[in-house]
């Protein structure tokens, strides 16, 4: 009865809620277990897909195992192949056409090119190279040349064999990339290896003590990398190569010594052949040949205007020059240095082959800025950016004036040479060229003069002119002057610029008149100037404005000398508002005591040193006495014990 009664006893509200919560949790766990068992297979498939897509989105349709990861995990390999009527055995991974994509072809080709590298390692290098064939090929070649410890993985003992079951699907871009790798990339890698080995040999040579100090960059260089001039000055390959390239750029064939000791020797061709490439050496020999031919001054010598080829033409009536160089073979005119234009004359060709207006103005501006050496047979072009107006040609070393363009002998050509003139020498009589002036302002004026002259010539010929394009070619205003506290050169006065400016203004006025004439017969007269303001006329003033008008007249100022309006009073400064303070008396410090005489100071130092020595001697005697007393006491104690 007790058990039955206890079983049938009703539960409290708290117990009922706990029991309901416990039952709900059980039901929830059961439902979760059932759902987990039901979707176990689906979850595995999703995990495999995520793992495959995590590698790269483009790798899902490739001809590789979908379960293989970057780390070579080959567990649970599942191959999905399908048979097609056209494509044969293809990978069923998202490529509906059934054909291998470029990425598939590249990876398959890499597997075939490197049969000893495992596929997961090749795939890892392929992804690291952003799925490009050539960078992956380079990385694979480097990996094969490394050791197992450097590489981090081992090569396969047995090479992989391609069975060739798939159909050949050549890709144009892949084939082009493979061809480039086969021809250029391997050569480049071999060259890099040779450079690396050469650098290692040079370092070993320097470490063994076989080195010298370069006379230009002052660095330690191996003896096998030395280039000497005719006097024995040694330089490294890099400095000698840079010197040769700079001299070749200036069309010079004599390579001077770079020594800072004032050596005037040069580098022979045998020495320069050590450090120069074959192409640079060939260019040097061509320049040398041209200079030697020019120095010979052969009669009837003609040069091709399109290449360095030259030949002697004995007949002065021959108008054409037939170039015999294989890569040129151009027939040109001996007079105008242009291509063959017979039967037309040079003037007719120039008239027919007119440049457009903007190009013609640009050519004129460039010709005004670029100067040439005045020596006959040289004509080396140059541009001056700063410095004096005495120019030295970099080719023939001829002295010339930048202003007038004549050959000069020295500073006596310039009127303001100053201290640059040698002692006892005076400037030439009537010289108008300045040695120093503002180069920027002179260049601006000369270029502007050439531009205005070219525009005037174009307007005379009635050529089509695009005003917007011509406006872009105009130079700016005058160059900004230096501050007042900084010394600067005086601005030049170019006569051609002033004349061109006046002619340009007249041409602009004439163009306006022509425009009026074209507009109609009513505009044939000269353009009317702006009329000056009409003078005020006297008229009666209304009664209501008479007083106000009078006030206005009294307040207004008329022109100078008007008797009706008084002149303004001159300005008188006002008096000061307060009395100025008395001048401040500067504070004067009391005089310092006189410094002791040197003799008294030396005597005082000697006395202090003597006192210090006496005190030290006294302390030493006291210490010695204490030591002796201690010894006597110890000796007495020892005798008493005995």
Strand content: 5-15%
**Outline, from the CA principal axes?**
extended
Main sheet: strands, sense, barrel: 2 strands, antiparallel
The tally of strands reads: 14
Strand order of the largest sheet: 1-2
In the predicted model, the low-confidence regions spanning at least 5 consecutive residues are 1-8, 55-94, 512-538, 547-557
| Structural Rg | 51 Å
The helix content, as a percent range, equals 40-55%
Alpha-carbon distance between the two ends: 115 Å
User: Helix count?
Assistant: 18
Q: Summarize model confidence as the mean pLDDT.
A: 73
Provide the structure class. mainly alpha
Structural summary, described in words:
- The protein is mainly α.
- Among the domains are: 102-192, no CATH class; 211-297, Zinc/RING finger domain, C3HC4 (zinc finger) (Herpes Virus-1, 2-Layer Sandwich); 304-344, no CATH class; 356-479 and 490-504, no CATH class.
- The protein is built from 18 helices and 14 strands.
- Strands 1-2 form a two-stranded antiparallel sheet. It has a two-stranded antiparallel sheet with strand order 3-4.
- Strand 7 and strand 8 form a beta hairpin.
- Helix 6 packs parallel to helix 8, helix 13 (357-369) runs antiparallel to helix 14 and helix 14 runs parallel beside helix 16 (495-519).
- Residues 36-100, 530-642 are annotated as: Disordered.
